[in-house]
Each structure stands twice: as C-alpha cells, then as structure tokens.
Amino acid sequence: MSETRLLQIEDLVLYFKTRIGNVQAVDHVSLSLERHKAMVILGESGCGKTSMARAILRLLPRNVSKYSGKVIIDGEDVMPMDDETFRKNVRWVQVSMVPQAAMNSLNPVIRVGDQVAEPAIVHMGMSKEEALAKASETFGLVGVPEDFLVRYPFELSGGMRQRVAIAMALITNPKIIILDEPTSALDLLTQANIMNVLKKIKWEHGASYVLITHDIATSSELADVVAVMYAGQIVEVNDAESFFSQPLHPYSQKLMASVPRLRSDREPEFITGRPPSLLNPPTGCRFADRCPFRFDKCNAEPPVYEVDGHLVKCWLYEDKATGDVS
Amino acid sequence: MSVALTKNRHAHPNVEADEILLSVKNLRVWFELKKWGFSHVGWVHAVDGVSFDLRKGEAIAIVGESGCGKSSLMKTFLLLNRPTEGKVFFRGVDISTLKGKELKKFRSHVGYVQQDPYGALPPFMTVRRILEEPLIVNGIKSKTEREERVRRAMHEVTLTPVEDFLNKYPHMLSGGQQQRVVIARAMIMEPLLLVADEPVSMLDASVRVEILKLLRKLQEEHNLSVIYITHDLSTVKYFSERIFVMYAGKLIEKARIEELLDNPLHPYTEALLTGTSEPDAANAKVLKDIPPGEPPSLVHPPAGCRFHPRCSRMIEGLCNTEEPPEFEVFPGHVVKCWLYKDQAEKLEQ
Amino acid sequence: MNLNQLKEITRYPSAIVGILLIAFLVILSIYVVIALPYHQTIMKWQGAGGIWMDNPRTAPPEWVNYFRSKKLPKTIIRKSANGAVQKKRTPIKGDISDEDFVFSFNYTADEFPQEIIVDFTSKYKKKAPYITLTWITPDGRKIDVGNFALHEETTRRISQDKKLIAKLNGKPPEVALFADPKSKELKPLKGTYKLDVDGIIFEPKSDFDAKLVVYGKVYGLAGTDHLRRDLMLALLWGTPVALIFGLLAALATSILTMIIAAIGSWYSSWVDSIIQRITEVNMMLPVLPILIMIGVFYSRSLWVMLGAIILLSIFGAGIKSYRSIFMQERESGYIEAAKAYGASDIRIIFFYLIPRIVPILIPSLVVLIPSFVFLEASLAVLGLGDPVMPTWGKVINEAITNGAPYKGLYYWPLEPAFMLMLTGFSFAMLGFALDRVFNPRLRGM
To answer: Do the Cβ atoms of B183 and B155 come closer than 8 Å?
Structure first.
C-alpha cells in the first residue's frame, strides 16, 4: 500500500475521571478512513461515540485521566504535538467538526456571516473582507442564500442553522469533517435536504467525512464504511454494502433488526437489557450478556478478527478469520 | 401489502357497531401574537380546519414535520388548549363546555404520553408517588386500592420486579424505563383514549421497538383508541390503522396505512415517503428528490394551497389562489389537492 | 432532597465546620434560654439589686493577663460578716466598747487596682459607731485612711477621699497605698496588706460589719462594661436572640417570597403584574432608613422590628429570581402531564412547583440568616435596638457611645463583633456547601 490513508487511528484511548470512578469512554479504538470516503461510526447513546470525536480533535474536558494512542493524518501522527501546534495546524485546518445540536450552539449575538468567517480569519489568516467572501461562497455550497450573511441565528430556521454550522466546518477546506449527529434534531425533509448537501459536497469537492450517529437508516445515506461502536469499543468495521445487507457482529445484526421499515412487513426486534456502563466495563466480551449466540469463550475479551477484508471483534469468527488485527 | 397487526383486533373501522369516541369538526386553534404582552400583531394558525372521527379501539397516526400544528392539535384533545373555532366531541359531549367534576372525569378518560420521558416525570418524586398522583387527584382515597393499581400498572408495562422500581427516582432509570413509567401513568386511570406525542423519538433505536410494541399490546388488550403523533413514518405501521398527514395546520391526506404507503396522493406525502430512508447502501449513491424550502409560517400562510410554493406540480392560477377542498379519491382515502379535482367527488370541507 | 445529597454535604470540610459551629451556637442558645430565663436576665441587665457593684468598671477579661508581662490585678473582696474574720471586742467604759478586726490579703499584681472602697453596715439606736481605718503595707508602714462616724450604711470610697488624697500629696489612694516607696518607677509593692478596721461602739447591742473591695482591672471571661455589668451575660444572651431573629426572619421571608412568586408565575396575567409592580416599588424602598423611622417614631421592640423587616423583605429581589425559575419550570413536561390528568392549580403549585424550588431555597435561606442577624445588630449599633434586651449590637453601641475605641477598651466592642462574625461565618460556610450540593453545576468552581 503506497498511498497513505487519509486518517489512521491506532489504539486510541480516552478515559475520564469522575467522582464515581473512571469512565472508559474510548477504549483502544483503531480505525482508518480513505480519501474522499465517508465513515459512519454507529452507536447508541452512552457508547462513547461523541468522546471519539472529541478525542480525534483533542477537545478534551478537564478531567481526563488517560489520553493516548496514535492519530495519523496524511501520514503524520498528531498526538505528540503540543496543544498550540495542534490548534494551529490541525484543528479546523485539517480536521473540523460539526458538533451535536450545532444549530443551537451558534452565538446568538453575532451575525451568522461573521461566525462562519471567523475560522477563515483565525486559521487561514484572511482579512475580514476575504473571509466574508469565502463565507458567502461556502453558503452557496450548503444552500443558504447569500443575503443571510447579515442575519442573526434566531432569524433562521433549524435547518438553515444546521447548514450554517456545516458551512463553519467547511470554510477552511479541511481534509476531514467530523459530523456528530448532524440531523437528529431536524425534520424529515430538512434531514433529507441536509444529506443531499453533504452528498454534493462529497462528490463535487471530494470531502471526507466521519459521521457519528445512532440513526441507522440515515447513516446509509452517506456511508461508504460503517464502524459499529459498543461500550467504548469498535466491534465491527465493514463496507456499507455488506454491512447493510449482512452485518457480521451479533450487535450489528440486532441493530439492523431493530430498524422499523416502511416498505417491508418484518416485525422489528428489540434488544433486551442495557449497554454496560462505561464506568466499570465487564471483563470479556462486553456484549456477551445480551448476545443470543453467547458461548463459553465469550468470558474472555475477543480479539479483532479480519474476515474478508472486514473487521469483527467476536469469537464467532475465530475460524473464518484471515488475520488477527488486535 | 398486509399489515402484520390487524390479527386479533376487536375494533375494525368498518364495523358500524363501534362507538365514535372522538369527533372533531372544523377545529381551528389560533394563538394570539402580542407585542409587549398586549398589542395585537397577528394570529398563529396552528390548527386550521381539522375534521375527523375516531372510533373506540381505533388507532390513528398523525404525521407531520415540526411546525405543522400537530402538537397544538393533540393538546386540544387533552384540553390543554382551547378550540378557537369548531368543536371537539368526546362521546357526544362538546369538551369545551366541560367544567369541574365533568372536566375531571373527561381527563381521566384520556391518557397522555409525552415525548421527553425525563421531562415528563417530576425528578423529586419516586416512581410509586408519580403513579399515585393521578389516582389521588381523581379522588381514590384508599391507600390499598392505590397501591394495588400502581402495581398492576407496573406489571402492564413490564417494569418488573415491581419492588425494584417503586422507590427509585426518575434519574435512576434508563430512557426506556422512564418512558414506561410515563405510559403506566397514562394508563393508570384506565383511559379510553391514549394520546402519544412522539413517544419514542427521544429513545435509542433498540429501545424504540420495545416501547412501540408495548403500546400496541396495551391497545389490543384494552381496546384503546390511540392518537399517535410522529414525524417518523417508518414507525406508523406498528399499531395504527389510519394515517393523517398534517401540513401547515391542515390535514392534507387521510387514508388507511397500507393504502397510503402503496398509493400516496398528495405531493407532500410523496415527499415524506421519499424522505424516509431505510438502511440501504445504495442510498449513498443518489440524491433524494424532495421539495426544496421549508414549511410555511403559520402566521402568514401562503394563499391557496399552503404547499404550493414548494410543489413541483403546482397548477398556476389555481393552487396559488384557492384552497383545495377535500376530495375522496378512493373509498376511505381523501386528499386536499387540486390535482385530483376531476377524479374524485368533492367532499364537504 | 434525599439521603445521597445529605451524604454529599459531609464531603465538604466547609460544611462540616459550618455545621459544627452552628450546632455549638444552637446548643449554647438552648442552654442560655433554659439557664438564664428571660425576665431574670432583663432585670439583671438593668442592674436590679445592685448585683454588679462588686465588679470593676470597664475591665477587660481575665485572660488578657496571659498576654501581658505586667499582670493586672483581679478584684479582691474581704468581708467581716458571718465570722469571716475574727472580731475582737474590748470594752472601754460602760456601754462603750471597741471592736476591731483586720482584713488581710496578698497582692501579687504588677499594676495598681482600679478603686478601693469599704462598705459598711451597722446596727444602732441613737449613736452610730465611730470607725478608724488603718492601712498596713507589707513593709510595715501604717497609713491612716479615714476616721468617721457610721450612719446606717456607708460606703467609704477610699479612692475618692479628698482629704486622703491631699494627705497623700495628690496621688490617688489606690496608687499611693500600694506604691513601692523604694522603687524609682511607679509600681505596686507585692506582699500582704492589711486593713485594720477599728470601731468604737456606743450601745451594747450595736454592731457593724464591713466589706473591703479592692477593685481589680480584669474581670471574668468577657470583662465588664461601663455599668460594671459582666459582658458574658450579653454575649450569651445575644446568641439565642440573634439566631432566633435571624432564623425567623430568613424563614418567613423565604417561604413567603417563594409562595408569592409561585402564585404570581402560575396565574400570570393581572395577578402576576400586580405582584411584579409591588416588588419593583418595594425594591426601591430604602430598608434601613425606614426601620430607623419606625424605631424612632413608633417602637423599638425587637418583635416590631422583626415584623417590619419581614414585610419589607418579602417583595424583594427573591421574587424576581424565584419567578424566573418558576416560569421555566411551568413549561416542563411533568407540569403539562399534571394538567392533563386533572391536577388542580393549587396542587400543582404546592406539590410540583415548590418542591422543585426547595433545593435552591435552602442554601439561600442559610446564607440569608446572617444578613438578618447583621441587620438587627446594625439597628442596635445605631441606637435603635430593643431597649431592654442585651444583644450583641447593643453592646457594640454602648461601647462606641462610651468611647471604647478611644480609651483602648478594645475587648468591649470586639467580643460581640467576634460573635457576629462567627455566626455569619458558620452559616455562610454551610450555605455555600449546601449550594454546591443541591446545585451541581456550581461544583466545578
């Protein structure tokens, strides 16, 4: 493989210290993203996926107890960088983020045009006029009319505000855009519109995405690769086609089975029990006590197996594995 | 396409014998917009001419995006809003005339399941107390009777073993468990009608199904009428028979579910169906064909058909000037759209 | 409010300190109220029965001697009644006899006493006994300090005896009688002093008794004020007064404010508007000047002040902040649900809204208590305190009025000030810790 991957995450760890114990939010996660592709990190609430996003962008709270691993962007490991260098060279320059409920995190007293222009001024050294011009251009990309530059967030609808937030992440032409639940709070048609916007940007400008969501159906609108996260660990990495038709990990299978479908008669199923707390994750396979295929090996933590070019963290695939990647 | 749920149902929409539980006639709910708290600026036409009948044991889904007025509509059925015009009849009685004891009795017949399970529960009360409140309010004085009913309600929503949950506070429960408490509370007075406002949209994917199945079980066992409000079309099949599509304060299409899914008539309904994704890798390769723009302001809705500014099939001169009446295109399938003016008999609006 | 939160509190050292201090103050108050009943205390404070007469005037507490190289004297009292000293009666002629006794004491202080008096009581029908007082120093000098006839009861103020002063070359007797003649600087001679009381009695049944009081310059645990009153009484009694006042005022104000805010925000419309307007006007009223006016023109009774303060405080800023919280909570899901299942307005206000506020109310209540304590003290310092009760503010007021700071009598206003600070400190500690427990968002600070 001569071509370097765009993003390579190796053994990323992020633990927080709280009064009740250590929260192991991101527990030895390894992932990779190719250029111009979109990877979806799929998981339910409490699985640590938002912490994943923060770990990549080094947006850490004060109570971090462990933060280690490698984050290699375009061949360069950015973890050893000090915070100031990271801020100047990586955050919003190479990787940017549209945070969860971004539409609600716009500054209410600053015009949206100025807010979108700000990253360009700070990270690209542009003057105010240049930055506003770029903002206008980016507005065009996301489908916000130019005359909205002078408006305030409260004058815009939810969908428009989300587009503004996406524009803010795009303006510095980053290589990777992380989107954390970009459409959860939006209406159906607005959601579809935003997805269209993201697709166009990907096709026409070659953007690469890391999309974090719990919405399986919507994730399929963008996904090239799907990574499933459970209790702080990645349990499956699969390309979209095989994942949505034949998921490997029992959790992925259950997730797919729980999606209500408009156009089929099949009754959806639900998963009994609750995900384990990230405070004291159980030893062994973390999904074991909810898994219909549990057997005695599951008391030990399974390694990550490579099966037909996909990755699964499950003992069931021990025999079919072509390699052990863990 | 058959829907997997009509098996053991007592209620069937075509059986005349069933009582009409709720009858809505030309309901309008307008909110006054005031500047500085007293000068009149305009009206928010949240619900603008809604009519339908709901039978005992029947479940309907009202589908629409945010701002279409469905929450205001639902709150009117709970008498949390007053009708501005038009009437709502519950078992033949106009609910806006209810007062005092009669009003309380009506409230005990309608259960309310809210969207946010955590916000719906008082954080300083235990589960037992939360469930006892409606009983106390409705004058059930005997402590043993209350205890018994609380336990029964917990069993019904499968919050068992009951002892484990009775003394817990809401923040100690998971989202799914919280929502089950909300449902238990809504059921505890043995209502005839359940109004569920997006009951699963704030829950995780794997828990949604659990709650929907629970609602269905309750509906079947108690012959409950249910009004299920949602914006997620993919969940409506699981326990509703009829579906109403709401846009800008009006019900623009009404039909049986299978009928609607097979044969959507209104362009907006088509858009909703197109917009509803299913997990399929092929989705990533195409753009969805959906109307641009956003739902209109309810203060100054567009003239004529309220969807016309976004409609690709708008008829110039007609859709933008005159509001379409309700057309019955197929039996039991009505739509408010000028595209069908020739095909169908015009019904009274 | 549940057990977990109570356990939380113990994690904060400030809370534990606060609780311990408050407990101490409360226990002290209970003890004081039981052991020193109200009426008795008032009587005592007015000086009934001359109970303070044996105390020195404006004397600092005894423990200041630990910090001094030159020790101040304590009061020395010698009595002749009830056979405390041996009386020698020698007949002279007929009914006339001579009675003599000697008071003796050991003087070890490095400073002179404040005053010397001799109190006499006598029994006679027509002719009073004639007394001769002789002062005997440790080094054997004898000084004649007075000859006079006793009329029933006399207090011989040796320190103010002009003739004696003249005789001692203008030096005050309490100094001259104790001064060491051999020392160049003025310091008292230590050793055993005697006062010979020699009286001539003219009737067989006549008798007399004397009490020698050599006033010291220190007294007790807290010292004395200008009326010789033991300040300990005021410090002790001030505790329950302060606590009860502060607690009642804070509680009444908080609860009433909360209820009014709840009713206003629930019913909105004109009810709310009226309450808000009243509040806004009331917030502009200057509290202290109004209280001063009430005190001057109407009554200075503590209870009247309490009532006035509560009335002025109810429609205060608290209403605005509670109202904003209530307005927010009103939109909550569970309130909506309650309306839907038919709960009455009153029920919602008292069972759903108010319990939500209690965790916010309690810390602010605790922190409010000292403000009212200080308010009462301020009124007292300004001279508008309750006219009869001994309170901390009263003591400060008297100290300042009597020039304590100028005279170097620092202990006098500082002791009640310290009690005020202790009270404020303990409630503040507890209150802030409670705030952090009940309102976790502040925890990081």
So the answer is: no
CA–CA distance, A86 with A83 (Å, rounded to integer):
5
Domain extents for chain C?
3-45+227-442, 71-215
Report the residue of chain A nearest B68, measured CA to CA.
A187
Domains and CATH numbers, chain A: 7-94+174-324 (3.40.50.300)
Distances (CA, A) of B284 to A37, A196, A225, A241, A246: 11, 9, 11, 10, 17
Interface predicted TM-score of the whole assembly (ipTM), two decimals = 0.83
Question: φ and ψ at B287, to 5 degrees?
Answer: -90, 145
Residue written as token pair 């400008």: A205
d(CA A135, CA A167): 8
Amino acid symbol at C342: G
Q: Per the CB < 8 Å rule, is B119 touching C333?
A: yes
What CATH number does residue B58 fall under?
3.40.50.300
- In tens, the pLDDT along A9-65 reads 999 999 988 878 888 889 889 988 988 999 999 988 778 888 888 888 888 888 888
Cα A122 to Cα A117, A131, A146: the distances in Å are 9, 10, 22
Q: Which residues on chain C place their C-beta less than 8 Å from a C-beta of chain B?
A: 1-2, 332-334, 336-344, 347, 352, 355-356
Question: Which fold is adopted by the domain C3-45+227-442?
Answer: MetI-like fold (1.10.3720)
Task: Evaluate whether residue B14 is within a structural domain.
Answer: no
Domain for residue B1, yes or no? no
C32-39: long-range contacts, CB 8 A cutoff, minimum separation 24: C32/C236, C32/C237, C32/C239, C32/C240, C33/C240, C36/C233, C36/C236, C36/C237
**How many angstroms separate the CA atoms of A111 and A152, rounded?**
5
Residue pointed to by tokens 């939109």: C331
* CATH number, span C71-215: 2.60.120
Q: Do B108 and C2 touch (CB under 8 A)?
A: no
Q: Suggest the residue from B68, B160, B204, B286 to mutate for an interface test with chain A (most A CBs closer than 10 A).
A: B204
Using DSSP, state whether B298 is helix, strand or coil. Answer: coil
Distance CA C418, CA C422 (A): 6
Q: Could you report the per-residue pLDDT of A101-113, keeping only the tens digit for each?
A: 777 788 989 999 9
Instruction: Tell me how many domains chain B contains.
Output: 1
Q: Assess B302–A contact: CB distance below 8 Å, yes or no.
A: no
